[in-house]
Design a protein that fits this description.
6-stranded mixed β-sheet; 6 helices; alpha+beta; 319 residues; 25% helix; 26% strand; Immunoglobulin-like
Length: 319
């Protein structure tokens, strides 16, 4: 979850069935690009999109399931430096929610294949608490895992004020920074109500304020986050930011893998088993000791791998 991403939007030409986004100037060659079509209104035909060729740092080709028969269709895109799908599908060595449930059930003396409702709730409690304990260990209140941070940027378009953010996105940490060449102050994150009020003035220009709002999107993506800007951009800007990853509850279908990937699989497992020890058996035993020892080594590795320079964060120049 610590990989870089870039996202933006593109006005689909009326009547187009395929086109190429160019001039993106991404700071990496994307390994994964996700695209989705935003309809002009609720009565418009639903159109899907897919990347039809090899993406490059300059752009990528897109094909539509049907022609954009009217004006107003837009393409939301997200480009990832690494395999974004790994955050959803996991990795072959990653530990899954089912793996954790089985391990906790076995530790508690239960038959996983015939758990009662009460036993299922007990095992799930230990798993969810164990994952939270892994994400935010009480013994290391000042440490924040590198994989819980996203290094992202939105590339704006003229006249577009709303931008769909990738799945797994939590909230922006701090403010949004313009490209250093823009020499503008950072964009301040405010409540959405402030944005809605300011938008009564249909102003365009360099964005000064931003808000993050949860929204439902078409297809199987479920709930996602959108970035709302004011003023509405009057041209292309690149807004960089640091973001918190979404740390929602695990389940067997929609969120089967904890963040961090296979590198932390054993640590997550020991965390869940340590919770079972402490809260069900009322003791801090071998699994608690193992978790604490493994945690120290993991934090040392994370410090080596996770240090980043976020770069320019605005200056005192006037707009």
């Amino acid at each position: 979850m610590g990989a870089r991403f870039r996202c933006g939007t593109y006005a689909i030409p009326q009547g187009a069935t395929d086109f190429t986004l160019t001039g993106l100037a991404l700071p990496f060659t994307p390994k994964t690009v996700l695209v989705s079509v935003r309809m002009p209104d609720a009565d418009a035909d639903i159109i899907s999109a897919f990347v039809s060729g090899e993406p490059t740092s300059a752009g990528f080709p897109v094909a539509l399931s049907a022609p954009a028969g009217r004006a107003g269709y837009t393409l939301d895109w997200q480009a990832f430096e690494t395999d974004e799908q790994a955050y959803v599908d996991g990795e072959s060595l990653a530990v899954s929610y089912t793996d954790l449930m089985k391990a906790v059930a076995r530790f508690l003396g239960y038959d996983y294949d015939s758990l009662t409702n009460a036993q299922t709730e007990e095992c799930d409690f230990c798993v969810q608490s164990g994952v939270r304990n892994f994400y935010r260990p009480a013994a290391l209140a000042s440490h924040e895992w590198a994989f819980l941070k996203l290094d992202g940027a939105v590339q704006t378009a003229d006249g577009v004020g709303d931008y769909l953010l990738p799945s797994g996105f939590g909230n922006i940490s701090g403010q949004l920074a313009f490209d250093p060449a823009e020499r503008k102050r950072s964009v301040v994150v405010v409540p959405y109500g402030d944005i809605a009020m300011m938008r009564r003035d249909l102003r365009r220009g360099a964005p000064r304020f931003a808000a993050i709002v949860s929204t439902n999107v078409m297809g199987g993506d479920g709930q996602r986050k959108r970035l709302h800007l004011y003023p509405t951009p009057d041209r292309a800007y690149t807004l960089s930011f640091r973001a918190d990853a979404d740390e929602g509850k695990l389940n067997a279908t929609n969120r089967p893998y904890p963040l961090g990937g296979h590198a932390y699989a054993e640590l997550v497992l020991e965390s869940c088993l340590s919770i079972a020890e402490q809260r069900v058996n009322d003791e801090a035993g071998l699994h608690t000791q193992n978790f604490n020892a493994m945690l120290e080594a993991a934090v040392t590795r994370d410090f080596r791998q996770g240090a980043q320079d976020f770069g320019f964060m605005g200056d005192t120049h006037d707009w």
